[in-house]
Amino acid sequence: DAGITQSPRHKVTETGTPVTLRCHQTENHRYMYWYRQDPGHGLRLIHYSYGVKDTDKGEVSDGYSVSRSKTEDFLLTLESATSSQTSVYFCAIPGNTGELFFGEGSRLTVL
Amino acid sequence: GENVEQHPSTLSVQEGDSAVIKCTYSDSASNYFPWYKQELGKGPQLIIDIRSNVGEKKDQRIAVTLNKTAKHFSLHITETQPEDSAVYFCAASPYTDKLIFGTGTRLQVFP
Questions:
Q1: pLDDT tens-digit profile of A67-83?
Q2: From the list B34, B43, B102, which residue is nearest A42 (CB)?
Q3: Residues of chain A neighbouring B1 (CB-CB closer than 8 A)
Q4: Other C-beta atoms within 10 Å of B31: how many?
Q5: For residues B94 and B67, what is the distance between their CA atoms, to the nearest angstrom?
Q6: Is B64 an 8 Å CB contact of chain A?
Q7: N or C: which end of chain A has fewer CB within 10 A?
Q8: B29: which DSSP letter?
Q9: What sign does the CA torsion over A110, B5, B11, B13 have?
Q10: Angle at the Cα of B19 (from B15 to B20), degrees rounded to 5?
Q11: Could you tell me if B73 and B93 are in contact, meaning their C-beta atoms sit under 8 angstroms apart?
Q12: Chain B residues touching residue A43 (CB < 8 angstroms)
C-alpha cells in the first residue's frame, strides 16, 4: 500500500468553526490531491498540489483552502465549516502509471 | 471540461453470474480509464485500467473494454463472488495527473 495517512479519521464539528484535515505521505511524491465523496456525486477534486507551496483549484474548491509547506504534508482547511461540507474527504497521491492511491478517508460531520 | 457518466447506480447479481458496469465520457482527449473498487470504510483501490491505444484488457475475472469512437468503456466481472460486493467507480483522464470520476455503482452479489 502507498504510504498515505489521513487525520483525523472522524470529526464532528459545528457550523462556523474552522477545520483542518491533514494528509501525510511517505512516498516523496510531488503531487497530492484532496477529493470529497458524496452520494450521487462520486469523487470530486477540491484542490491539488504539484510541489511545496504550489497548489491549484479543482472542480469544487469554494469554501476550502490548502497548504503544502513540506513535501510530505498536504493540509485541507475549511475556514468556516458549513453543513454542505459534511462529507468524506480523501487524500491521494499518483502512482507510476497515472493511477491514484487513496488514503483511508476522513469523515467530517458539520452540525 | 470532462464529464463521466456511470450506469447503473446499483446492481444486484447472483453469485456466479456476470456483472457489467458502463461509463461514458465527453472529452475525446481523455486517454486513460481506470476502475476503482471501494469497500465499506476504505478508500478506493485501483482494480484495472486501460489506455486509449488498447481496446480490451483482462485480469483474471475482470476485464475492461474501451470504445473510443463511442466514448464509452465498461467493466466486466465474471463468476461473481460475495467479496466482489463493493462500490465501483470509473474515471477518465483528460490530461496527466487529473482524473474525473463517475458517480459510482453499488454492486451486491447474493450467495
A1: 999 999 999 999 999 99
A2: B102
A3: 59
A4: 17
A5: 16
A6: no
A7: N
A8: T
A9: negative
A10: 180
A11: no
A12: 44, 89, 101
